[in-house]
Design a protein that fits this description.
Its main location: cytoplasm. Pathway: Carbohydrate degradation; 2-deoxy-D-ribose 1-phosphate degradation; D-glyceraldehyde 3-phosphate and acetaldehyde from 2-deoxy-alpha-D-ribose 1-phosphate: step 2/2. It holds the Pfam family DeoC. The chain is of the alpha/beta class. The chain has a single domain, classed as TIM Barrel, CATH 3.20.20. It is built from nine helices and eight strands. The protein has an eight-stranded parallel barrel with strand order 1-2-3-4-5-6-7-8, surrounded by six helices. Strand 6, helix 7 and strand 7 form a beta-alpha-beta unit. Helix 3 runs parallel beside helix 5 and helix 6 crosses helix 7. It starts with 6 loop residues before the first strand and ends with a helix.
Length: 213
C-alpha cells in the first residue's frame, strides 16, 4: 500500500526550529507526503517552503482546545490568510466533558461558517472520552460541516486505537472522514488504520515509517 499520500506529517514540538522545518518539508516533498502540519507561527514559512508541492495544515487551539470561541475563529482565519489549506482544530474538551455541549456546538459552527471551502478536522481526543461521548463528538463535527474527525493530538495519555478508528468509521456512515493520529510509529500501524477506513494518518514518525530515517 502506498501510504505516503495519506500522511499529514507533524512538526509541532515546541523545541523544533526553523532548520528542522526546512529539513522536514524538503523530505516530505521528496517522499510525496500529503501535508505538513505546523503550529500557527510557522504557517506562512511552511507555505513558502512547500512551494505548492505540499499541503500546509495549521493546528488551532493546540493541544488543549481551551481558547475561547472568538480566539479560535481568529486563529483559524489568520492561518488561512497565511496560506494554510487545512485546519486541525482541537475541540474544547474541558467544556465538552463539563456538559457544555451547546457551547461546544456553537463554537464549532462558528469556526465552520468562517472557514468554508477549506478542509477542517476536529480533534476530539478520544483518550478522554467515553463511548457515548465519542459518538456525540462525531455528531458535533458533522453538524458543523467539518470534513474530518481526528482521534488525537498526540499529547494525551493514549493516541489512535484500532477500536476508536473502527468506531468512528462506523459512526461516520460516509458523512465525515476519519484521521487516525497519535502514537502511530510503524508502516504496519498506518496500513491497518487505512484498511479499517481511515482516510488520513497523522504522525511525526513519517521518515521512519517510510524507511527514510
Amino acid at each position: 500500500m502506498d501510504i505516503n499520500s495519506y500522511i499529514d506529517h507533524s512538526v509541532l514540538k515546541p523545541s523544533q526550529t526553523l532548520r528542522d522545518l526546512e529539513e522536514h518539508i524538503g523530505r516530505c516533498i521528496e517522499l510525496g507526503v500529503y501535508a505538513v502540519c505546523v503550529n500557527p507561527f510557522w504557517v506562512k514559512k511552511a507555505t513558502e517552503l512547500s512551494g505548492g508541492k505540499l499541503k500546509v495544515c495549521s493546528v488551532i487551539s493546540f493541544p488543549f482546545g481551551l481558547d475561547t470561541k472568538e480566539q479560535k475563529v481568529l486563529q483559524a482565519l489568520r492561518a488561512l490568510e497565511d496560506g494554510a489549506h487545512e485546519l486541525d482544530i482541537v475541540m474544547n474538551i474541558s467544556a465538552f466533558k463539563s456538559g457544555l455541549t451547546k457551547y461546544v456546538a456553537e463554537e464549532l459552527k462558528a469556526i465552520g461558517r468562517h472557514t468554508k471551502g477549506y478542509t477542517r478536522k476536529l480533534i476530539i481526543e478520544t483518550a478522554y472520552l467515553s463511548h457515548e461521548e465519542k459518538k456525540l463528538a462525531l455528531e458535533l463535527a458533522v453538524d458543523a460541516g467539518f470534513e474530518f474527525v481526528k482521534t488525537s493530538t498526540g499529547y494525551a495519555p493514549a493516541g489512535a486505537s484500532e477500536e476508536d478508528v473502527k468506531l468512528l468509521v462506523e459512526l461516520s456512515k460516509g458523512r465525515i472522514k476519519v484521521k487516525a493520529s497519535g502514537g502511530i510509529r510503524t508502516a504496519e500501524q498506518a496500513e491497518r488504520f487505512l484498511k479499517m477506513g481511515a482516510e488520513r494518518i497523522g504522525t511525526s514518525h513519517t521518515f521512519s515509517i517510510l524507511k527514510r530515517e
